[in-house]
Structure formats: C-alpha cells, structure tokens
Amino acid sequence: MKNEVKSTCCYCGVGCGVLIETENGKISGVRGDPDHPANRGRLCTKGATLHLTAGPSGRLLFPERRLQRGQTGQRVAWDAALESAADRFAETIRRYGPDSVAFYISGQLMTEDYYVFNKLAKGLIGTNNVDTNSRLCMSSAVAGYKQTLGADAPPCCYADILAAQLIFISGANPAVAHPIVFRYIEDARAANPDLKIIVVDPRRTETAEIADLYLPINPGTDIALFNGMLHLLIRDGLVDHTYIAAHTTGFEAVAEIVKTYTPAAVARICGISELDLIQAAEWFGKSTAALSLYCQGLNQSAHGTHNSVSLIHLHLATGQLGKPGAGPFSLTGQPNAMGGREVGGMANLLSAHRDLGNPEHRAEVAALWGIPDVPAKPGKTAVDLFKSLDSGEIKAVWIACTNPAHSMPNQAAIRKALHTAEYVVLQEAYAGTDTAEFADLLLPASAWGEKHGTVTNSERCISRVLPAVAAPGEARHDWEIVVDFARRLANKLGNPATAHLFPYTNPEEIFNEHRETTRGRDLDITGLSYGHLETRGSQQWPYPDGAQAGTQRLYEDGRFPTPDGRARFVPVQHQATAEALSNEFPISLISGRMRDQWHGMTRTGTVPRLFNLDDEPELAMHPCDMRHRGLASGDIVKVANPRGEMVVRIAERAGLKRGRAWMPMHWGSQFMNSPGANALVSEATDPYSKQPELKHAAVRIDKLDLPYPVAVLRRCASTDEARALLAEARSLLSIFPYAAVGLYGRSAPLVILRAAEHGPLDSAQLAAVDRLFGLDSTEGEILYADAKRQINKKAIVRDGRLFGVRLAGEALAQSWLKQAMAEDELDPSLIRFALAPSERPPVSMPSRNIICKCADVSDVQIQQALAQGSDLASMQQTLKCGTFCGSCVPEIKRMVAEYATKEAVPV
Ligand SMILES: Nc1nc2c(c(=O)[nH]1)N[C@H]1C(S)=C(S)[C@@H](COP(=O)(O)OP(=O)(O)OC[C@H]3O[C@@H](n4cnc5c(=O)[nH]c(N)nc54)[C@H](O)[C@@H]3O)O[C@H]1N2
Ligand SMILES: Nc1nc2c(c(=O)[nH]1)N[C@H]1C(S)=C(S)[C@@H](COP(=O)(O)OP(=O)(O)OC[C@H]3O[C@@H](n4cnc5c(=O)[nH]c(N)nc54)[C@H](O)[C@@H]3O)O[C@H]1N2
Ligand code: SF4
Ligand SMILES: [Mo]
Fold first, then answer.
1. Distance between Cα 141 and ligand 1 center (Å)
2. Pocket of ligand 2, candidates 401, 451, 480: which has the most ligand atoms within 8 Å of its Cβ, to mutate?
3. Which of 509, 537, 512 is nearest to 525 (CA)?
4. Is the pLDDT of residue 854 over 90?
C-alpha cells in the first residue's frame, strides 16, 4: 500500500518540506512538498535522492560495547548499554565532579533531542559542558547578531530575496550549499531586470557566475572591505542619518574608525580594484532594498564575529533592514542549527536565547526546570572541549549526531584527544564513521524518515518532522536514548532534587516544555503546538500566544532587543588571518562544500549518482602556482604543514587566484588515505564566538613522484552490492601512498579505486587487489601486459558486458571507462578498448551529458524522447526531468526549441 508523509529534508538549513512516499512499510520515493513555504515543491539533488539513502544498509543497528577501541564491538542489549554508560558517568562525576564529563552534539538533531541533552547536562548533571558542531558553523553569526542587534535572530525571510534590489552575497556559495535559496536568486534575476548581485569570495564560485560584480578578495579581508564600503557610504552622503539617530548607538566611533579605510588602502588589503570597491558601495548605498546573504566564508574565521558585525553595520548605516527585500541574512548550515540555538544547547547559552553569564537568566531556567540552580561556570566550547579530553580535565564524552574525527580542525590533535579520553559514547545513525573508531559504546539512533520532532530553518520557520517508517534494527530516537540514560543517571547520582526532570513519554511533551521557556522572549512560540504545525503548516517565530500568524520579518518598527531598544555599532578593525602565509607555507588552503555531498558523506556517500559530478578527491589550484611547482592536472601532490599532511590529486582551476588552493571538506579517511583538509586546518578561534578558522590554513604543496598508477572499476548489480564492495575496498586505502575509493553511476553502479605507487605492484599485490574486487577469475578475462613498461591490465567480460577492469602502470582509459561502464555503452566489439592506453573513448561511443542532475536524465534520453514526439510537459511526466529543483528547465526548453526548429527545416 502506498502512503505519503509530510516531513522535511534532513540536509541544509533551507529547510525544504518533503513528502516521503512509502510502499509496504518501506520508503519508496520523495518529492518536494508543494505546500511548504521554504521550497514550494522544489528540491535539490540531495533532497531529491533522500529515498535512495533510506533502508538498513550501512546503519548502526544494535548497541555495541567495545572491550578494546578500534575492534569490533560486542552486541549488547539497550538496558545493559545504558546501565554501563550511566555507571561510568556517575562514577566519573562522583570522583571528579560534574565538569569532568561533556556532551558534544549537533545542529542536525531535532529541537526536542537538543532540549533534553541540554537539560541533562545543565539541569541534571550540573555542567555547562555541552557544545555542538554549530560551534564550527553558526556561532560567529550568533555572536555578530547579538553584538549589534541584541539578539540571535536572523531578521529576514526568503521572500526578501524576491523583493531585493541588491543581493550582496559574501562568504557563501548558495548555488552549491543552499540550492533552493539559489533558485530564488535566479527567480529574482529573471523577474527584475534592475536587480544587482554582488558576490564576495576569494574563489570564483558557481554562485559568482550570476554576479554583476564579483570581488575576489584576499582570504580573511572582509572587515576591510565592509569598513571600506562604510567609508564610501559616509563620504558620498549615502548613509541614512535619520535611521542612525533614531534606532542605533555608537555610529560616531565607527565612523571615526572607517576614516582610515580609504579606497586605496582597502583595495590593497583586499586585493581588488578601487573601482570595484566604489561600485559595490554605490550599489549598496543607492539601493532601495539591499539584502546580504552570508555564511561560512564570514563565520569560519578567527575574526568571524567582527566579519558579520562589520557587514551588519552597512545595513544599520543605510536603514536597510526591517523592510521587504533588505537586511543581513545569515544562511544557516545545518537543518536545525536554529533549533539548537533556541533551546540554548551550547556551552555559553541557556534555553530560549538566555545567556549563561546572566544570573537572572540562570534563575529563570532553574525555576522553569524546578531545580535550585543551573551552573554559572561557562562550559567548554568545541575546540577547548577536545583539548580538555586530551589533558584529562574532561574524562568522559558523549558524542551525538556529529563526526568530530572528520569535521574538527587539527585532526591529529582531535584523534589523540579521543584516544586519550577515558570513556567515549557515540550516538550515531550510521556504522563505521571515523569517530566510531574511538568509541567505547556505540548507540544506534534513528535517522531521516524515521524521526519525529521539530526543526527551525534559516528564516525562523518551524516545521514538524514526521516519521514515515520505523527505525531499523534496534535503533532508537535520539530523545529517547537521552531520556532513558538521564533517568538511570539520576537514579545513580541519587539527587532527589533532580529525580523529576525527565518525565517525557513522547517528543510533544518536550516541545511543550521548550515552548514554555520561550514565553515573553524574543523567540516566543507560545502560540504554536504540534497540532497547529500539522494542520496549519510551518510557522515563523516569534509566534506568541494569541497571534494569528508567524512573523515574517523582524525589527520593522526599528526597535531592537537591547536595553535601550537601539541597535549598536561596534568598533571593528581589519585583522589578518590567524595563520600568515610564509615562504615555507605559501598557499592558503580554503575548504567548503560540493553540491552533491553532505559533510562526512555517511548518507550522500552511499548514493552512486551523487558521485557523478565529483567522483574523486581533488585539490584545485591556480595554473601558475601549478606550473611553478612543475605540476600538471592529474598529478599527485603532498599538502603539508606542521599539523599534518594529505596526499591528493591536483586539478587546475582558473577561478582561484594565485596563492590559494581549494579542497572540499567532505573528503576524508572514508574515501582517501588521510583525514582530508582537517589534517591541516588550525584550531585558532574567534575570541567571542570561539568558532575555529576552518576556512584558512597555510600549507605547502609539493609534487609527489608516484609514477605507477592503479585504477579499478568494478560494476555491481545493485547499490547494496556496491556499498558492500566499497566498504571492503576501504581496506586498500592504507596500502598505497595515494589512494581514493568511491562510487559512480546509477542503477548498475561502479565501485572505483584509484591509487598511485612509487613502483610497480608485484604479482601477489595485483592478485590481492583483483581478489578483493572479484576480478580474480580467468573466465572472460582479457589481459594486457607489457613487462618492459611495467604495465599490467586486466578486464573481465560477463554476458558480453564489461564487469570489471583493473589497470596498473598506465590507467588513462579510466577517465572515460567509468561512464561507458555505468551507462552500459560499450558495444561488445569495443570492449578491447578498455585496455588501450587512451584517455579518449572509441569514437563510435555516444557521449552523454546529464541535463537534469536531480532526476539524472541525460541529453541522449531527452533527444530520444523528443524523437518520439515528447514535449517538456510529457518528459516531466515520464522522465521526471525538470521536476525537482527546476534549474535544468531552461536547458530542456532550449533543446525542445532546437529540436522543433530542426524538424521545421526541410532537408
Ligand atoms: N551540498 C552541501 N550543502 C550544504 C552542506 C554540505 O555539506 N553540502 N552543509 C551545510 C552547512 S552545515 C553549512 S554551514 C553551509 C555552508 O555554506 P557556505 O558557507 O555557503 O559554503 P562553504 O563552501 O563552506 O563556504 C562558502 C564560501 O566561503 C568562501 N570563503 C572562504 N574564505 C573566505 C573569506 O575569507 N571571505 C569570504 N567572503 N569568503 C570566503 C569559500 O571560497 C566558499 O566559496 O552549507 C550547508 N549546505
Ligand atoms: N575544514 C573544514 N571543516 C569543516 C567545515 C569546513 O567548511 N571546512 N565545516 C564545518 C561545519 S559548518 C559543520 S556544520 C561541520 C559538520 O560536521 P559533522 O557534524 O561532523 O558532519 P556530519 O557528517 O553531518 O555528521 C553528522 C553525523 O551524524 C550522523 N547522523 C545522521 N543523522 C543522525 C541522527 O538522526 N541521529 C544521530 N545520532 N546521528 C545521525 C551521521 O551519520 C554523521 O556521522 O563540519 C565543520 N568542519
Ligand atoms: S536545498 Fe536541498 S539540501 Fe537544502 S533543504 Fe532543500 S532539498 Fe534539502
Ligand atoms: Mo555548518
């Protein structure tokens, strides 16, 4: 029986609504929810492939206890698992005090999960050692909003994108990281010929393609740019003195500071032209509605708070906020980064945007929870938390829904800290993450499609998340695990004052308690309930009791949640990046997102087609920097600094300026033989937000002489088979100086290994690789060996199709073979080409381009449909192309029109 359940996408902070289709108790499809205000039916590639990630494969299914770290765990019952965890935590707390334990959680948890974790630490145990991966993500944006506007509240909404006259995008790449927001930018561009778009990014990104003005500033120089723009706004009389006088304080001091940010000085610091700077300031100052979008390029910096402060100044100085199409709009990264902030689930926050440092706020929270007090001492923020694990100050850590052995900076230090920790609990949905290696206890959590609760997206919109199917194996909901553990721990600690803290039997009771904490606060949601959200749809906070609708836009009356009701200008100065470039480490390594992968890839990395855009870890560099080092695209390099190194393939990218290199943050030990970018990134943090400078590291890049390439491409009958083979292929990563594994293709996916060695593999090594990939039979084999040139290649043919290819010594054909094998395009007569030394496919092989990335439809399929008389609408029906994010519709329309013209021309 088919069914559809309304829920949300579990990836980015756009917070799109989805309809999950189930058939006979299994998730069978997903589509955008046409009624959801965030996306109105659209989805990006990640959202549109969510159903392909459902199911038990790769999941953690049972609690496991490890007698020795890194070894296979023993399956244990939930009771035994949670009892042993409660024993260890109780004992540690008794011996060393409450601050000897910590929780490291995630912006991907539901608000309800987050709430109980926070209450467990601050209410039951009495420690503020609860921090989250949002420290790596949004904490500078939070601190920036609080310093200037007085509260952590993004004042804008998605409708502002369509109402804007200027969209000023700095340090964000929404075309990749917030694709549905980018669709709104494209819509705005199409609807408004006067719209101006400025993109500020040291890299010419996919987003920069849509810009009228692109400013390729030097990394870390945003404050100089924004101060320079304010200088020009003041000089040219483009500031709104009435707004400044009525609604702000501190303008004079900042005006004084920006006097020295002359166009010449700023152009020099930022590495851009004075004319471009002047143009940006003029567009901003003269715009009737200027909207800023920003994200990690500003946040992940050792001066991230002041990056956003100086950007917000531009809006305060021109009165560009609290009105349609205007305001500083921080895009949130994770699906519930906002919810975590709302429940105060961080080391320096308390429920409902209260501050830990404020005694009144602490008393309010203690009263709400019915306990004598909440601890005053600030907890450890992410970087310090792991340092304290290493020093022994914190002995036991509970990690949930995040993978610090991939995502934290300075991996050598993080892994050492996890190794040193006395006790590590990991609450995870998937098996085998990098962090799992260090866990003493693994607790299986339910995941997307199984979970329930609420989440808040970038525009303060709260949505219900509903389950479509039951969790696999013995996996439990995150809130359930926490509540069960908390009750056991309360028992063991034996404090009668805290015995009543966890009475919940369902997430709704948790939501209702959280709702009460917001009464009278800036994010008041006392007018909302599960019933309300389910019947009337998602709503934007604040939504106080008695309200008829949510609040689209904040600060429309010019009053701010500060003691005097005024927003504040804060004196801020340009600062260099924490780590300077030097002769020894002359390249700035920048890391960030790829369109089709999500962080450590536990979920997206199981879907073959999500590799079709980028299927091998690559470091991008400027052509001149490459030439300078004698490098060509495809060479293998070592990227190193005193913290660590990574060995990776290099690709030329003209969109980067000299002295910069780019590496997606997704690739790590699961897909290559090093922890990836975070092997190199430093833990320098912002003094206010404690957010680390993940966007910059000074590195050196040198060519590695690995002249002996190895490539294996093996076709699988199903995705499940490919996932199992991929898991096995990981064992090969450690045996080569360079190695990467991945998936590719669609319904008959490939598993691919690429490696490089100093010298040829001997026959035993080749045989071991062949065996692992199931290429060790002689049946159907085609061999090519050239002993003199140390080349050895093998292909296996089954039923007239290429089943697998292993190339060693020379592997040029792999670049076209992957598509030919995945698409089954290699005619039996052409199979021998698989062993030919050519980067180009045989001429008679059709080359195809994927036009609709979401539905995975190629130009060849579209041409075939056109030849059969289809039009756009009928192809949308049959092939589903252009029905998800919509970005390919113009291209399909063009193909339809071109076909019609061709048809019309008589031959
Ligand atoms: N596909 C995909 N989407 C995602 C995610 C994902 O994993 N995959 N993750 C989600 C999460 S949690 C987050 S936080 C967001 C992140 O979303 P974004 O912040 O938009 O993405 P990033 O690629 O991390 O970084 C954005 C840009 O900052 C630029 N940058 C680097 N240094 C500087 C600088 O000094 N100044 C300026 N102005 N720019 C700089 C980089 O070149 C990069 O293009 O994405 C969310 N969406
Ligand atoms: N160098 C560099 N490093 C970065 C960044 C960067 O740009 N550059 N970006 C940073 C940013 S912005 C972020 S947000 C972080 C993200 O870093 P992480 O939080 O480490 O990334 P994820 O891979 O999303 O980790 C989430 C984990 O939770 C698991 N999981 C999924 N659903 C559930 C669930 O419902 N319950 C439980 N218990 N587990 C679940 C997943 O399998 C996964 O292992 O990375 C940061 N690190
Ligand atoms: S933009 Fe894509 S990843 Fe983000 S919530 Fe929407 S569908 Fe999910
Ligand atoms: Mo993030």
1. 13
2. 401
3. 512
4. no
Architecture label for domain 2-53: Single Sheet (2.20)
Q: Which is more confident, 428 or 886?
A: 428
**Ligand 1 atom with least separation from CA of 296:** 19
| CATH architecture, domain 850-904 | Orthogonal Bundle (1.10)
Quick: pLDDT tens for 771-825. Answer: 999 999 999 999 999 999 999 999 999 988 999 999 999 999 998 899 889 887 7
Query: CA dist 46 to 53, 450, 564, 601, 856, Å?
Result: 10, 18, 45, 11, 12
Q: Where in the chain is the domain with CATH 2.40.40.20?
A: 587-702
Range of weakest confidence among 256-270, 292-306, 736-750: 736-750
Task: Assess whether the previous peptide bond of 335 is cis (omega < 30° from 0).
Answer: no
CATH value of 139-330 in 3.40.50.2000, 3.40.228.10, 3.30.70.660, 1.10.10.60 = 3.40.228.10
Take atom 20 of ligand 2 and give the residue whose Cα is closest. Answer: 403
Taking the centre of ligand 4 as the mean of its atom positions, its distance from the CA of residue 817, in whole angstroms, is 35
Copy the structure tokens of residue 596: 């089709």
DSSP 159: H
Centre of ligand 1 from the C-alpha of residue 457, in Å: 17
Q: What is the dihedral of CA 598, 601, 606, 607, to 10 degrees?
A: 30
Answer with the residue of higher pLDDT: 69 or 32. 32
Pocket test for ligand 3, best of 7, 20, 178 (most atoms within 8 A of CB): 178
Indicate the average pLDDT of the chain: 95
| Biggest distance spanned by C-alpha atoms of the chain | 91
CATH number for the region 587-702 comes to 2.40.40.20
**pLDDT above 80: residue 884:** no
Atom of ligand 2 nearest to the CA of 404: 20
- Range 83-136+351-380+391-540: architecture per CATH: 3-Layer(aba) Sandwich (3.40)
Beta-bridged to residue 495, according to DSSP, are: none
pLDDT digits (tens, 9 = 90+) for 644-653: 999 999 999 8
Name the residue with the closest Cα to ligand 1, atom 32.
297
Q: Which atom of ligand 3 is nearest to the CA of 42?
A: 7
